[in-house]
Amino acid sequence: MSHQPNNVFAGTQVVSLVEVRGTNNSLVHPRGAVGVVTRTLAGKETHFLVRFPDGFEATLERSQLEVLRQFKDRLGAGAETGAPFDLEQFIIYRCVVGSRAYGLDNDESDTDHRGIYLAPAELQWSLFGAPEQFEDNAAQSCYWELQKFLIMALKANPNILESLYSPMVEKVTPLGEELLAMRE
Fold first, then answer.
1. pTM for this predicted structure
2. Which of 52-61's residues contact partners 24+ apart within 8 Å by CB, and which partners?
């Protein structure tokens, strides 16, 4: 059993849940910046020492940071875990692919959803960037981040082409419509 809160040891990559400020209260790193714990709690200490890639160090309380791996897992889990990141609001295109999309389904067929999401700027600007895709095998869904989708489309990836030409579109935003207009 570990004596460290939530197993946060020196060397653990963490995400700052608050803005990191320096001298004169100036902003050094925005919320979402990734750093490495260099000193853990000992005795009556209540702060971790976190070093950021530019060498700047800040002391953060446990409530002001989250382990990077857990943060990424929580992003993928979406609203089910109470995370502030709700994938649905960032989806610009969603369709049904596979047998259901082409009327070849039967009673045992599942419904496969594919789509594109546009990550919010805050997530894009964080040091670890936006996840390239969210995949939920239980729900048979996969959503690609727009940049990854475009790169795979330019390489004529069959999964992407099937998504672009699906006859069953469930959601499309104006940006998604612009993308579909470029198919021709």
1. 0.57
2. 52/20, 52/28, 53/127, 56/20, 56/22, 56/28, 56/29, 58/16, 58/20, 58/21, 58/22, 58/28, 58/29, 60/14, 60/16, 60/18, 60/20
